[in-house]
From TrEMBL, chain A:
The chain crosses the membrane at residues 12-37, 49-69, 90-112, 132-157, 190-210, 231-253. This is Uncharacterized protein. It comes from the Bacteria. Keywords: Membrane, Transmembrane, Transmembrane helix.
Automatic annotation (TrEMBL), chain B:
This is Lipocalin-like domain-containing protein. It comes from Rhodocytophaga aerolata. It comes from the Bacteria.
Length: 303, 69
């Protein structure tokens, strides 16, 4: 691992990447402090302008630091490594702050609370953001479990010995959150933060690439390789579980003879019961003996 | 808005050749029961349904609702 980092530290590209990541995550952490400003300042904050200024500062400061770091390395390699350790420390601590903030927000119910007027909306009309909020808010226990992963993983990021473990705990959680933010139209700010966090964690993972390659690819279970009588049998058996799973499900698709014509929602436009025409709102007055609509879903339906 | 407490839920079979619908539902009060209905003028947007449910003869003109999802 030491060799890997040292080799990468010798390139200017790696220095620019590290410096920019450190400044970006530090700036991102700083934006989390905006709500601490007195409320009278909030309306006057131009978030577009703030983001642009922070972006320019990060770009300039990150590049300048990388160039200085490159010069420093030519004079004193050890000091340059110390700079690197500081910057990676900034990345780790910023990530720990940002991610654990989201963890505590879940525990104290600042995240995943849905306004009552949203709960009164028909499910089909609720947007992706509120669907997600209500879905995760439905179980406080699940929210706390996710929070514990975020806080526990963040604590692991604080120590060099456990940084890789923390990264491996947090990265699957964050990739999941990133995809939810992306495909369920969650707020742009949250989406950008989740991208930064995922990139930051990927960077930490990348630092240990050789170590991970050794564990996940080069290392084997030390048991003897099995040889079967027929050469084709082994690859067949290796892929059999996946093929069997596909076959099991696909046969349901092929054998599906369920109705396709009625499936959906049908509104009652005119309702005649025992030769008497009922008014449109009859279902409201006569309970289930007057029908508002019919819902068909494959073999299931309701009136 | 759909209210499960004021609805009849069950299984249906639709015979496309005869255009007949059989809907078997279950209520805690009266146990299982069946609605047999004749479907006519079926298009992608509307249909008519005629049948007997309990002691009532029903005739419904139905309009399909298109949903985004």
């Amino acid at each position: 691992m030491e060799n890997t980092v040292a080799r990468r530290a010798s390139t200017l590209g790696f220095k620019i990447l590290t410096s920019l990541a450190a400044f970006l995550l530090l700036a991102c952490s700083a934006t989390f402090l905006v709500p601490l400003l007195p409320q009278r300042f909030w309306p006057s904050i131009n978030y577009g302008m703030l983001t642009t200024i922070l972006g320019c500062v990060v770009l300039l400061a990150g590049t300048a630091l990388a160039v200085l770091w490159e010069e420093k390395e030519k004079q004193d390699t050890h000091k340059a490594r110390v700079w690197q350790a500081y910057l990676i420390g900034v990345i780790r601590y910023s990530l720990a702050f940002i991610i654990s903030t989201y963890g505590f927000a879940k525990i104290f119910k600042i995240q995943f609370t849905t306004a009552d007027f949203i709960k009164d909306m028909p499910l089909g009309e609720v947007n992706g953001f509120y669907l997600t909020w209500h879905y995760f808010g439905y179980s406080y226990t699940l929210a706390v479990i996710i929070a514990l992963f975020q806080i526990g993983g963040s604590i692991l990021l604080l120590f060099r010995r456990t940084t890789l473990l923390g990264t491996m705990v947090l990265l699957p959680v964050m990739v999941n959150i990133l995809f939810i933010n992306m495909f369920y139209s969650i707020a742009v700010g949250a989406f950008v933060v989740s991208i930064l966090i995922t990139l930051g964690l990927s960077y930490l993972l990348f630092l240990d690439f050789q170590k991970l390659k050794e564990v996940f690819w080069a290392a084997t279970d030390r048991l003897p390789s099995l040889s079967l009588k027929h050469y084709w049998l082994k690859p067949f058996l290796q892929f059999f579980p996946i093929m069997a799973a596909f076959g099991l499900i696909y046969q349901f698709v092929l054998r599906d003879t369920s109705d396709k014509q009625l499936v959906g929602t049908w509104k009652v436009a005119k309702f005649i019961r025992n030769d008497s025409l009922l008014p449109q709102d009859a279902w409201l007055k006569g309970q289930h003996r007057n029908y508002k609509g019919l819902f068909f879903r494959t073999v299931w339906s309701c009136l | 808005m759909y209210d499960p407490t004021h609805s009849l839920q069950g299984q249906y079979t639709f015979d496309t050749a005869q255009n007949t619908l059989q809907f078997i539902y279950y209520t805690t009060q009266s146990g299982p029961d069946t609605l047999k209905a004749q479907i006519s003028d079926l298009t992608s947007t509307s249909m008519n349904m005629e049948g007997v449910l309990k002691n009532d003869s029903l005739r419904l003109e139905l309009v399909k609702i298109n949903r985004a999802n």
